[in-house]
Amino acid sequence: MLKKLLKYDLINIYKFLIIFYSLAIFFGILTRIFFSIENSFILNIIGQICSGAAISMMFSILINNFMRLWVRFKQNLYGDESYLTHTLPIEKKTLYLSKIITAIITLFTSVLVVALTLFIAYYSKDSIELIKGMLLPLANAYNNKVIIILFLLLFVLYLQFMNMLQCGLIGIILGHKKNNTKTLYSVLFGFGVYLVSQTIILIIIFLMALFNKDIMNLMYTNEMISLSSTKLIVYISIIIYTVILFIEYIIGIKLLNKGVNVD
Q: What are the pLDDT digits (tens) for 196-206?
């Protein structure tokens, strides 16, 4: 049953996202074409317009990905579709798991499309050298290649996206336990859960700072943090986010199992 749920969830999300994916890549290609033509004022202006459109589409991809996942969750469990959903012989944890797997897949492909669009539109030897110059010190500190450092930073960002997504899902569950203004309560609860998760991360980093002078200096001074401390923060962030995501997953399932108030 999970496979069927996942199939319909993915179809529902991708039928919206594919439009933004296509537009992002299309404007990325146009940006590349017009910027490659030199000594033309008009074509440069058109290139700037296409570049702005490509950037807009990249932001739209991420925003719409989040919004469609939250809307799909609300429709399935609390909207008109919920009357059918709750008559199916499916456990609440299976329903929730389907939404999480859908989020993992769609957010991953969205990040890939954004990265592909950036590559198509702005790739050049100079831009690659600039990125290498920025990441090379970190790579040396980690004894790794630049590409691995870039992957780690993107992975932390991806975990942050998943955290935001699950905070929104928990907010929807809590908001729909209220009798009135459920959407408003969903937003407030979701934002509140997100603040709690970020506060936990800051507290853990602060506790780390008590035993690491460089991290403490980062909080109270403008001094540059050492590369070894940066390495520690990146790895700890990955671990913390992973634990928080697992806890949020358990909380979401437990809240659903307490009952659902259908609109």
A: 999 988 888 77
Rounded to two decimals, the pTM is 0.83
Q: For residues 114 and 24, is the Cβ–Cβ distance under 8 A?
A: yes
CB–CB of 160/245 below 8 Å?
Answer: no
List of the chain residues with pLDDT < 50: none
Identify residue 247 by its one-letter amino acid code. I
Q: Using CB atoms within 10 A of its CB, is residue 40 exposed (0-12), middle (13-18) or buried (19+)?
A: exposed
CA proximity to 102, closest of 162, 167, 172, 159: 162
Check residue 91 and give its pLDDT: 83
Rg (CA), the chain: 22
3-state SS track over 94-128 = HHHHHHHHHHHHHHHHHHHHHHHHHHHHHCCHHHH
Token digits of residue 241: 């986010």
